[in-house]
Design goal:
single chain, 493 residues, alpha/beta
Length: 493
């Protein structure tokens, strides 16, 4: 029998090995890598993050900061007849192919399973899988390996529940009417949305189609996960965190957000290389130092490409109002002819305030911009990452949802949180006229929406409190770490 002294000097149990599987879309990968960094910083777990050659560079900051606790597994992107060869992410991808990407990505299940089984008898056996909710195929993989799978949601709990509700209940519109209301009776308040505001993934579902059925199966698998971890915080979504939701399989949801960098990290390379440096953009914004909150920051995310009528309405409204702005337009936005030249000319001749604008072509350092004191409003499509970055920065939003979960997010912000003013509910199909957009811009810039700006400041205080030591989100994070450690210490069969 071993003595007590021998027991005390025995080698410690290895840290439980967690397999982390992001989905290859900026808005999904970035927050899950942020979560991986937090888990690594807590200690006591070892993470292996899965990537393909095109997405592997996004792991570089995480590996540089936490290489002792985090490793990478780069696998070839799986081929699929419904998905174009040579494409590995949503970057530049047509929305019509989003479902095909979800299905194509399931091809990683086989090689990932082989990799995990090779380690099943050793100290680095996989103890749990933490994966994006677009990677529902990791649920049957976890079952095969005999481990738990935790589903990560980069979206609001509300938006996640709406999405899963659709594929769980399969509601239909009446007579092909795009305005036909679709209700969600199992959610608090029983909300309803017109058909056209539902995600394209659901509206394009075709019974018996391989891609459609694969997408639906993806979400149904999530309802079998041991729990959900969501990039949100309790004060923002108290209503949807108060009790388990039928639309999420009555699973526990841990709110561990906002997963947004603080001011010290705002200039980091989170999300990849930017078209303009944070230092350059902030230096430009410094020109408004004596007029705090006068600049409107505009971005519709990394995936959305504005339709010409939408871009024209916004451009005309900006020129008409003379509101100072930074517009991160991406690389393919169809701006009106000579708009950029007129902006440059106005900036060269105008005073430091009115008429001064800047267009950024490509990825912009959004966190740094939102954290700058000169930025007072954010015109946004209401993608969830943008919502949380604005909330953490205390910047009120001008909500202009286009597709996916953006209408749900916008309703949450406008009607429940009170931190946003709607620009348009028309989505991709119907652009507002320039006069309408101009009225919203003028009301925001003119101080007529001060109550919304005040609420945004309150949200920032609540966001900071929840991720501070002892805050609700940090408590949930610590409980997640304890859960992962316990999974790693369970007896091996």
């Amino acid at each position: 029998m071993a003595t007590a002294a021998t027991d005390r000097t025995a080698a410690p149990e290895p840290a439980p090995h967690v397999l982390v599987v992001p989905y290859p879309a900026q808005g999904h990968t970035i927050p899950l890598l942020d979560l991986a960094a937090l888990l690594a910083s807590r200690g006591g777990v070892h993470l292996t993050v899965v990537a393909t050659p095109a997405t592997a560079p996004l792991l570089a900051p995480l590996l540089a900061a936490h290489g002792d606790a985090v490793g990478e597994l780069v696998l070839p992107f799986p081929s699929h007849p419904a998905f174009p060869a040579g494409v590995e992410s949503t970057k530049g991808l047509s929305p019509a192919l989003f479902g095909a990407l979800i299905v194509a990505y399931t091809g990683l299940r086989g090689p990932l399973g082989d990799w995990a089984r090779e380690r099943s008898g050793g100290p680095d056996r996989v103890a749990a899988i933490l994966s994006d909710f677009f990677c529902g195929w990791t649920q049957p993989l976890a079952a095969e390996l005999g481990v738990s799978r935790i589903a990560f949601s980069p979206s609001a709990v509300y938006g996640t529940a709406v999405l899963h509700s659709l594929f769980r209940r399969m509601p239909q519109r009446e007579d092909g009417d795009d305005e036909s209301p679709i209700g969600f009776p199992d959610l608090p308040g029983a909300p309803a949305y017109p058909w056209r505001q539902l995600t394209l993934l659901y509206r394009t579902y075709r019974d018996g189609d391989e891609v459609s059925e694969g997408v639906r199966r993806n979400f149904l698998w999530n309802l079998e996960a041991s729990s959900f971890v969501s990039n949100t915080f309790r004060r923002l979504e108290e209503r949807y965190l108060a009790a388990p939701l039928a639309d999420l399989g009555f699973r526990r949801v841990r709110a561990i957000g906002p997963l947004a960098p603080d001011a010290a990290d705002a200039a980091s390379g989170r999300g990849g290389e930017t078209a303009v440096s944070a230092a350059d953009l902030c230096a430009w914004l410094d020109g408004f130092a004596d007029d705090d909150g006068s600049v409107v920051y505009i971005s519709f995310g990394s995936m959305a490409v504005l339709q010409p009528p939408h871009a024209a309405a916004l451009a005309a409204a900006l020129e008409r109002t003379g509101v100072p702005f930074v517009w991160a337009v991406g690389t393919a936005a169809p701006l009106p002819e000579r708009f950029e030249e007129r902006v440059a000319a106005a900036a060269a001749t105008a005073g430091r305030r009115r008429g001064k604008g800047r267009v950024v072509r490509g990825w912009a350092p959004q966190v740094a911009a939102l954290r700058h004191r000169a930025v007072g409003w954010f015109v946004t499509h209401c993608g969830w990452n943008s919502v949380l970055e604005a909330s953490a920065a205390g910047v009120p939003m001008l909500a202009w949802p286009m597709t996916a979960d953006q209408f749900v997010n916008a309703r949450l912000l406008v009607e429940e949180a009170g931190a946003a003013v709607p620009v348009s509910w028309g989505g991709i199909q119907a652009a507002p006229d320039a006069e309408e957009v101009a009225r919203v811009l003028e009301a925001a810039a003119g101080g007529q929406c001060a109550h919304v700006a005040a609420r945004a400041k309150e949200l920032a205080e609540e966001a900071a409190a929840t991720v501070s030591d002892g805050g609700a989100s940090r408590q949930e994070l610590d409980e997640l770490v304890r859960e992962l450690r316990e999974l790693g210490s369970e007896p091996k069969e």
